[in-house]
Amino acid sequence: MQKPVELIIFDWDGTLFDSVGQIVASLQFAAQQFEQPLTDDAAKSIIGLGLPEVAQILFPKVPELHDDILKCYGDHYIEHSKDDQWFAGVAEMLQDLDAQNIKLAVATGKSRKGLDRVLGQTKSRDLFAVTRAASETKSKPNPLMLSEILQYTGVQADRAIMVGDTSYDLEMAKNIAMPRVGVSYGVHSVEVLKSFKPLSIAHDIAALHHFLNTQVDA
């Protein structure tokens, strides 16, 4: 018999938070300021990674500009994302899971400063037992942030689920044999997500909420 889940760890951008479009727009803006070529697909593909990794992948020929490009990106994103919020239904899903005494956590490619800002923006800090940002640990798909969350909560990997919209999320979980769920409404395709053998792929928040409830009640 499958053990019931005790801990659900969520990616942030593209999984809980409707921010992918603005991230791409801000990366494009920063690239243009420094006359660096960048397609929308390339900008979208790296969402979920830590910012240093983003710069290395998108702008490998100009390492001397990485700090300036990332600052430009960050300034533009903060200025233009003040109205970004969770996907519809996320607040209700998280509150329902919390009411069932399920521990909730966040594992994100954001910086700690950026994560703290959006936790405040969504008034959700108290919903999560622990949060980890890429700036304070290893970037996905290294599983260190998941290991740190497990250590903090005292939950075993097989009693947790990682939920994310990218290969980085699912590969990170697979690297420590943690069950995982993909969502198709974010960044990476269903075909890419399937390659990491998720328990399920949810196509909207309602389907994700329903599936997680089946795991909690297992």
UniProtKB/TrEMBL annotation:
Chloroplast among keywords: no
One GO BP: DNA repair
Organism (species): Acinetobacter defluvii
Top-rank taxon: Bacteria
A cellular component annotation (GO) from this entry: cytosol
Keyword Membrane set for record: no
UniProt protein name: HAD-IA family hydrolase
Keywords tagged on the record: Hydrolase
Example of a GO MF term: phosphoglycolate phosphatase activity
Pfam families per the UniProt record, alphabetical: HAD_2
